Amino acid sequence: MFGWLRGLRAPPSIPEPAWQATLARYPFLAERPAADLERLRRLAAEFLRDKEFHGAHGFVITDEVALAVAAQAVLPVLHLRGGLRWYEDFVGIVVHPSEAVARRKTTDETGVVHEYDEVLAGEAMDRGPVMLSWQDVLASSITRDAGYNVVIHEFAHKIDMHGGAADGCPPLPAGFAGTSSARDARAAWFAVLQPAYDAFREKIIVAERFGGEPPWLDAYAAESPGEFFAVACEAYFVNRAKLAAEFSELAALFDEFFGKR
């Protein structure tokens, strides 16, 4: 499984048949400009060199699996200043054959502990591994219209976590949006993201409680600003036109941050 890539200072090119098969399966990658595809391929090779894949429950990590994850994972950092350094806090990627069940424990405001099972298509752990469902990774080849992509979702969380908690605002570069301080940059970010999140959450409430028309973006985005950021990133990278039609200011904000070319 691309083991020959790891440990090499300058990774060789990904074999042409494997690369073309990946582009054919995930057309939102193949449709990018030639210069983007060249950089995407190089970053994917570096990603494969530096990360370690593990299969859960007997799942076998093949070249197809590893390259599918790598090519989609590096898409958000394709033009992002710092590149793969955004993913430097972890090495492991755990792939399950399908959705995983995680046991959760929470304590409410009265001190009562609640335990429950949560079904997960993916999970990004702070300074820890990324977990993905292969079934959902494969599904991203046909869910472009829905704006769904589990790999981009989890790696968007990693970008968000790069500066601390996954609160919906990743670390912003100096001078972002014409600001002069990190505090002002963060305020400028939330001046766009927070109203978009609040409006989306209201639409979800209307849809669920009163039978209103559900919005296009995945309802999971209403969980928190951090989840809204990750879900919006999915849509941005696989179906930017649709995201821009519904959240024009948010799409423009992402253009500035991710370095749309």
Cα-based radius of gyration, to the nearest Å:
19 Å
Reported CATH architecture of the largest domain: Orthogonal Bundle
Low-confidence stretches: none
Shape estimate: globular
> In total, how many domains does the architecture comprise?
2
Class based on secondary structure composition and strand pairing: alpha/beta
End-to-end distance: 32 Å
Order of helices and strands: HHHEHEEEEEHHHHHH
Strand order of the largest sheet: 1-2-6-5
CATH class of the largest domain: Mainly Alpha
Our estimate of the beta-strand percent is: 5-15%
- Could you tell me the CATH topology label of the largest domain: Cyclin A, domain 1
Q: Percent helix among the residues?
A: 40-55%
Largest sheet: 4 strands, mixed
Can you tell me the CATH superfamily of the largest domain? Glucose-regulated metallo-peptidase M90, N-terminal domain
Strands, count: 6
Overall pLDDT confidence? 91
Number of helices: 10
